[in-house]
């Protein structure tokens, strides 16, 4: 599935669609260059679920947890991960044992310890617009893709 996203607001809307289509336990990989709109997508996702506060990039903290109506959502950014082994200390496995949603920016920097994606999203620059390409890698992922298709 591929979709052209003309503005930052449209990227937030796309994140919101994913949130509505999402399952209780879903792992999203968000791939693409710096400034391509990964965090903007996550902001739309969290706001759609009812998060009122700011959504800051977890570039330095590696992870930012959110609890919305009892549902845990973890926003990761592995950009500054020095060594994938650091993920062991983050207790990622514990996050996955719960019913939690994980959105992971720069998942490739955590390999081979990055949890496998249900949905993989690639974003590329097309001048001001962005191209989103999305793949489902599990039953949950396929269902989310079908629900997000326009
Ligand atoms: P990343 O997390 O991928 O590094 P951010 O979401 O932090 O990127 O930043 C993307 C920047 O690009 C924001 O300042 C956003 O307003 C801007 N932007 C401009 N056009 C778009 C678009 N079509 N989609 C997403 N972001 C856009
Ligand atoms: Mg970011």
UniProtKB/TrEMBL annotation:
State the Gene3D superfamilies in the record.
P-loop containing nucleotide triphosphate hydrolases (3.40.50.300)
Q: Which keywords has UniProt assigned to this entry? A: ATP-binding, Cytoplasm, Magnesium, Metal-binding, Nucleotide-binding, tRNA processing
| InterPro entries named in the record | P-loop_NTPase, T6A_TsaE
Under the GO molecular function aspect, what terms does this record hold?
A: ATP binding; metal ion binding
| Location within or outside the cell | Cytoplasm
* A Pfam short name: TsaE
| Principal cellular location given in the protein's record | cytoplasm
Q: Name one GO cellular component term.
A: cytoplasm
Q: Which domain of life is it from?
A: Bacteria
Gene Ontology biological-process entries: tRNA threonylcarbamoyladenosine modification
Among PANTHER family, the record links this protein to: TRNA THREONYLCARBAMOYLADENOSINE BIOSYNTHESIS PROTEIN TSAE
What family does this chain come from, according to its entry?
A: Belongs to the TsaE family.
Q: What protein name is recorded for this chain?
A: tRNA threonylcarbamoyladenosine biosynthesis protein TsaE
Q: Species name for this entry?
A: Candidatus Thiomargarita nelsonii
């Amino acid at each position: 599935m591929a979709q052209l996203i003309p503005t930052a607001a449209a990227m937030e809307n796309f994140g919101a669609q994913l949130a509505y289509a999402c399952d209780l336990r879903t792992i999203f990989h968000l791939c693409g260059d710096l400034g391509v709109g990964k965090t903007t997508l996550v902001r739309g996702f969290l706001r759609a679920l009812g998060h009122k506060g700011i959504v800051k990039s977890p570039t330095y903290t590696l992870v930012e947890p959110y609890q919305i109506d009892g549902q845990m959502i973890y926003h990761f950014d592995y950009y500054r991960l020095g060594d994938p082994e650091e993920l062991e200390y983050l207790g990622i496995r514990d996050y996955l044992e719960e019913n939690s949603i994980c959105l992971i920016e720069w998942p490739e920097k955590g390999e081979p310890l990055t949890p496998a994606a249900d949905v993989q999203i690639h974003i590329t620059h097309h001048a001001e617009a962005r191209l989103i390409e999305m793949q489902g890698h599990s039953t949950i992922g396929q269902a989310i893709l079908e629900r997000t298709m326009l």
